[in-house]
Amino acid sequence: MSTNHLGVKIRKIRSERGMTLKTLADRTGFSISFLSQLERGKSSATLESLKKISLAFGVNPSYFFEEEETESDQSLIIDQRMDAHHIYYKDLGTMVANRDFAPLFVVLKPGQTEGNLITHKGQEFLYVIEGTLTVRLEDELHELGPTESFMLDSTRPHYWYNYTDSDVKLLCVSSEVKD
Questions:
Q1: Which pLDDT tens digit goes with each residue over 96-109?
Q2: What residues are paired with 66 via a beta bridge?
Q3: Cβ(12)–Cβ(24) below 8 Å
């Protein structure tokens, strides 16, 4: 796996859709320079930027971590780590095409405390498996421990954080973006 796997996937889907860097910049609010650096592996993505890019493409963020299945590899997904931002994703619903919702297993490493509120179409259901997750929904902070859950309307500004010194493992089920 190349260290620029994320950038390669972003460039590939952008090219497949006939989208210029300027168009992607207009849709995400990011500079052309940042997006170009991201595609070339010279910059890394945050959860926030990855979400905005996925929304611009109409795909789930887990798309960027999917691997093509080979005959020698029976797993559909290989977990990927965004080293600079301490986030792991694993898409748990790859066996269904044209799905209405996306179940993701997410691990937020200690110190995942940066990121601006985001909005997108749909809803999110969060279920904490391990650790303490802080969910910001507009001006409200909600702390969730193991076996606690939270559901939100994703059109309201929100973000997740890990202010602890332990991993936070959670299940996130979000509705898919349909065109």
A1: 777 788 888 888 88
A2: 77
A3: no
